[in-house]
Amino acid sequence: MNVSVVGTGYVGTTLSACLAELGHQVTAIDVDETTVERLNDGGAPIHEPGLDELVSAHAGNRLRASTDHAAVVDTDLTFLAVGTPANADGSIDASILRAAAEDVGAAIADETDYHLVVVKSTVLPDVIESQILPAIEAAAGTSEGETFGVAVNPEFLREGTAVEDFTDPDKIVLGTDGDGRALDLLRELYRPLIEETDPPVVETGRREAATIKYANNTFLAAKISLINDLGNVCKEFGVDAYEVADAIGLDDRIGERFLRSGVGWGGSCFPKDTAALRAAAESAGYDPLMVDATIEINERQPERLLELLDSHVDVEGKEIAVLGLAFKPGTDDIRGSRAKPVIEGLLDRGAEVVAYDPRAVGEMAEAFPDIEYADSAADALADAHGAAIVTDWAEFADLNAEFDAMADPVVVDGRRIITRREGITYEGLTW
């Protein structure tokens, strides 16, 4: 099939490369000329394991990039995969998505063949009918069902494993509101993947499909916050929360995944989606107590880490190492990173922060330009009076002699990546 993808961020680039890998002809569209040029030269604009290889393999063949939205005319369907950032009150800003919808509508205005517009961006259910559909209709000069249709196909990609998540999905959700043409196109698009991996395919309405994404992420965020809350209780009683989690995870009603307690969740999805769902519920007159608690517990975890550090070191005027800046290992993304409130808390206490991350130093330096950044974990730890472990990069598990070089070997581990041993003062956040 011929497919166009508007937006070349984490979702759009991964989607484009993986669809090309499935055998489709893909045109990635973005307003950023530098990004378009990079894609056409065979390089991915973001860091994601396995993505560079796919882009390199298909660039100039099954994958090309363009700044011209008119390219959608030559495709069977168009994915909208642009950002829906959060407003100050947590609600989503759909203006970028609406503009992309208008561009696509204008491009297909003179077409008589059916064209499917697929919303991949994360939006609340009412946004499709109230903003996206009217934007396409106004720009195209026609009504839905005549020469175009709109579907919702949410993504469930985790940064750091996005390519793997696409190629071996837990589920595929197709929201079409009974539009047979739309459903047939999406079935054909995903047919190679479905035949190879046989995932559950959920065929539902557009509003349901949009809500599934929010419900999915909020449920997972709530599970992490609950195990963190339980972990905090365990810590107060000298109980190892990980041994407790291992046991309760054996209950098939609970499951073992997302039971690693620690300093909390971050990233581009969980913070934004939980906040958006809360804002939407409140605007509808409903008080979402569980969602509120999920967010509150997550916001509290970095301060608990700092309080443990305070119990061993007066950090004022002292050098403190922060290891791990990306919100999770395997990415350079610092959106929602728990390292941010940890750094802010240390600065408020008058500490001198030395930070290190294998990939995210450059990104964090833009947010905190006045702290020191080390070239290695060893450099960050040398002469430090304390260390906060915020991201569980595998290389941190091998640290040993590096702790001996600290002025005061106090280690507060927010991810259970460091092995407790003689010679260091070690505190696990929930164990």
From TrEMBL:
Question: What chemistry does it catalyse, as a reaction equation?
Answer: UDP-alpha-D-glucose + 2 NAD(+) + H2O = UDP-alpha-D-glucuronate + 2 NADH + 3 H(+)
Please cite one Gene Ontology biological process associated with this protein: polysaccharide biosynthetic process
- Which UniProt keywords are listed? NAD, Oxidoreductase
Q: Molecular function terms in GO for this entry?
A: NAD binding; UDP-glucose 6-dehydrogenase activity
Please give the PANTHER family that the UniProt record associates with this protein: UDP-GLUCOSE 6-DEHYDROGENASE TUAD
Q: One Pfam match, by short name?
A: UDPG_MGDP_dh
Family named by the database record: Belongs to the UDP-glucose/GDP-mannose dehydrogenase family.
Record's keyword annotation contains Nucleotide-binding: no
The identity of this protein, by name, is UDP-glucose 6-dehydrogenase
Tell me where on the tree of life, at the top rank, the source sits: Archaea
| Pathway per the UniProt entry | Nucleotide-sugar biosynthesis; UDP-alpha-D-glucuronate biosynthesis; UDP-alpha-D-glucuronate from UDP-alpha-D-glucose: step 1/1
- Which residues does the record give as substrate binding sites? 156-159, 213, 258-262, 266, 328
The record places domain UDP-glucose/GDP-mannose dehydrogenase C-terminal at 321-420
Q: Where is the active site?
A: 269 (nucleophile)
Against InterPro entries, the record matches this protein to:
6-PGluconate_DH-like_C_sf, NAD(P)-bd_dom_sf, UDP-Glc/GDP-Man, UDP-Glc/GDP-Man_DH_C, UDP-Glc/GDP-Man_DH_C_sf, UDP-Glc/GDP-Man_DH_dimer, UDP-Glc/GDP-Man_DH_N, UDPGDh_AglM
UniProt key word Oxidoreductase: yes
Q: What is its EC number?
A: 1.1.1.22
Q: Where does NAD(+) bind?
A: 30, 84, 122, 159, 272, 335
